[in-house]
Design brief:
single chain; 2 helices; two-stranded antiparallel sheet
Length: about 70
């Protein structure tokens, strides 16, 4: 699985950080999302999908990686 973020769409709500702090953080100055791990472990799949659904700007994308 791969995660992408669109920083230009982010509104700094922080729901992604609450849902998956091991994958997302926020910039100090403006609260925009920072992707810490673009290829998180498979066991984080449900948490990442929840973070994407919670994002009010739809700035998080979780993609299935096909081997």
């Amino acid at each position: 699985m791969a995660v992408r973020v669109e920083q230009d769409r982010c509104v700094g709500a922080g729901q992604c950080v609450v849902a998956a702090p091991e994958v997302f953080d926020q910039r100090e100055d403006d609260g925009v999302v920072v992707l810490l791990d673009p290829r998180p472990p498979a066991h984080a799949q449900d948490t990442l999908r929840e973070a994407a659904l919670l994002c009010p700007a739809a700035a998080i994308h979780v993609d299935r990686v096909v081997p």
